[in-house]
Structures are given as structure tokens and as C-alpha cells.
Design a protein that fits this description.
The protein is mainly α. It is built from 18 helices and 2 strands. Strands 1-2 form a two-stranded antiparallel sheet.
Length: about 500
Amino acid sequence: MLQAKIRKKVFFPPFILLTTVAFFGIFDPESLLVNLKVANDFILQNFGWWFSYMAFALVLSVFVIPFSKFGKQKIGGEKATRILKPWQLFAVTLCTTVAVGILLWATSEPIKHLVNPASFANAKPLSVEAINFSISTMFLHWTITPYAITILPAILFAYVFYNQDEPFSLGSVFTPLFGKKAHKYAYLLDAICLYCMVAGMAASLGSAILIFKGAVENLAGIEGTPLLNAGITLVIVISFTLSAATGILKGIKYLSMINLSLFILFMLYVVSVGPTNFMFSTAFSGIKSYLIEFVPRSIAYGESGDMKWLQENSNFFWAVWMAWAPVTAMFIGKISRGYRINQIIMYCFLLPVCFSFVWMSVFSTTSIYYELYEGANFARHISGNVPELIVFELIQKLPGASFLVAFFMILTFMSFVTAADSTVSAMSLLSTQGLDKDELESPLKVKVMWSVIMGSITWVMVSYAGVQGIMWSSNLGGLPALFILTVMLSGFWLTLIKSQTK
């Protein structure tokens, strides 16, 4: 390995900015929240339509690849060897993208849509129409579209990095459009990318903190405080920093396989003891509604849609996934060596999408069933802005609740550690220069610094703004990522067209 050094122009601007925001939030949280709300409203009111159309464009682009010559190309060339086995690649992709999000939102988000469906759904709260709208919305937010947002940039990065011998930099994915001129401003793009990732990561880490806080409040009767949030954050940050320190091949690979196994066990148990008939019939109706309404709902905006609902729901999720996309794409792209592009679509897109369909079918329908037929009254937690309590109340209604709560906490902990592990590794690689082409690890000190700043930002948001703060931070990270992905998509199409003429 060459002498690794910090890329100062890439590392310090976002690090200083984010550190300043963290301190500002600690000493004057009210002013921070006011400014965040102003910025958030501006983004949603002026760029919400762009989030929707861009997400839909990425979906269409992914489905074009299998029918092109581009999809047959092997990442790294015909002699390239694989870093991970197929099922390891699938597990790592799944666990480093959905992370802890599906554990929190799979039970709380459907209740939100059930009791407060969008006006364009033409559904009364708690009605059959509201059930279909709720489930189809879960599929919209958690299956095809979010994975398309991640996988297309990953494929483009893998191709330019390995097949065109470009450096490990976000500027590399701009070379199909701008040529070598893109390297001149690569440091700026990488710095923006790091900022986006920390802002987006706050949504995932925030979800983990909320779940653990919900466990303490629900099981121990202790009210959540900034001090409690700080303790939870510290434990999680230390854990994923230690995991990242072990390296990709020793840490993430094995954590992901274990995590996937736990996901499957947890899901199978709920299927066996939950409302199985309601689960499958409702999921089937939801899938049918999702497929029929996919195109109009994906591009719904303005007069055809409920603007406020779109801004607070679909655009929030697109912003989260887009904020994650650049760094996540670079990580997945780097570990995809040795696979043909169509194989990457199989293991990093289609299989994770299928898993998410099944997961949302099981947990979202179960949550709705207990709300409608078992008097759960989960809706009070939605109106009280504490959605993290829903999953624990649901678990306590299932057989073996005590064991299941402990199992769920372990699953939550491992899910976030796995996702954060990959993120910290990718961000650290992006912040480092002097690494060999095949080197997968950056210096430990860089990983520690990014871990600390991510934990600090998230703690401020969760402690002083709750779920709303998480949404605002994700939108702030999603906006610059939106511009990056727009240019990236143009470069992808140019690369695709050129490959057809060879």
C-alpha cells in the first residue's frame, strides 16, 4: 500500500461545517431548528417535483440495462476476480441500504397512511381503500424506487472505476459527460458527497436511536431525554466504529450474513404467529394497487397530487435515499468487481427488492390488523410524534413477547452497525489519498472522526427535533445529491448509448 494521507480539500470543509452545525445545535437548538425549517420548506416547495421525476427516471433507466449490451459487460474486465460471493454481495447490499429503516417504518408508516390518507387516494380513514393506499404506499417507498436510486449510480461508478481506470472519487462518474475535465473539480464533488452522506445518515442513525429510546420508554417507563439519547448514540457509534476498524472483508461481510439470517428468522416467526390470512390477502391487494398506480403516483405532482402529503412523505424518502446514494454507490461499486452488470442488478437490485416486498407485506399488514381489529390504537403515537413506540407495542401483542423484544433489539443494533460500518468505510476511502487501486481500507483515525461527527449531528437532531429533525436533515442532504444524480444519470445514458455502438 502507498502512503495514505487525508485529502484535506475533501475532508475538512464538510467536517468543519457539520461540526459547526452540531455545536450550534447544542448551544442554541431553537435557532437551529428555525433555520432548518426555513431551509426545508424552501427545498420542498421548489424542488419537490424534481425529487419525484428524478426517482422515476432512475427506475426506468435500471430496467433498460438488461436489454442493452452494457448489461453484459463484466466489472473489472473478463479476468477480474470477485471480492464477495453472490449471496454475500446480496446480504451486504441489503443490510447496508435498508439498515434500520425497515424496522422502524414498516410498522409505523402504514398506520400514518391508514388514519390520514392523502386526498388524492379518495379514501376515508380506516377504510378498505385506506388499507390499500397504505400498503401500496409502503411498496412505493421501500421497494423498486429506492433501490433504483442506489443501484444505478453504483453500476456507473463500478464501470468507470474498474473498466475505465478512474480514481475512487465522485468526480469519476462525471467523466462520461465531461471527460478528464471532471477531475479538476472532483474534490468539490467529493466534499459535497460527504456532507450529503452525513445528513442522510442522520435519518438512519436517528431511527436506531428512536427505536432504542422507545424500548426504554416502553419497557422501563423512563422518559426519553437528551442525556438518554446521548448514551444510546455513544454505544452505537463505538460499536460501528469498532466494526469498521476490522475492515470490509472481516466485518461487514460476516455481519451482513448474520443480519440477513436474523431478518429472515424474525419475519418467519411473525408470519407463523401473526394474522396470516389477513396478511396475505391484504398484501396481494396492496401489490395490485401498487402496480396499477405506480406510474401516476411516481410522477404525481402539482394539481394531480396532494402537495403537502407528497412533500412530507414520498419526497422525504426520496431525499433520504438520494442523500445516501453517492457514497453508498461508491461502496457497492467497489465490492462489485468480477460481476457482470446484469448480475449486479440481480443481486443488488432484484433480490433486495423482493425481500423488501415480503418484509413490508408481513409487518405493515400485521400493524394494520392490530390497529383495526385488536384495539391497539397505534394512531395515538402518530399524532403524538412518537412512532418508535408502535413496534414495541406490536411485539408485546405477539406470543413470546419478552424473548421477541430482546431479539428485536439485537436485530436493530446489528442492522445499524452493519449499515454504518459500510458508510464509514466508504466515506473514509473518499477522504483518503495514496491508496492502491485494490485497497479496501483507509486509516482508522479517519473512520473515527467521521463516526464522531455523524453521531453528534444525529444526537442533536433527535434530541431537539425528533422525527421532524430527521426529516429536515435528510432533505438538506438530498438536495445537493439530487443535482449530482441528475448529472450522473446523463453520464449513464451517454455510456449506455456508446456501448450499443461497439
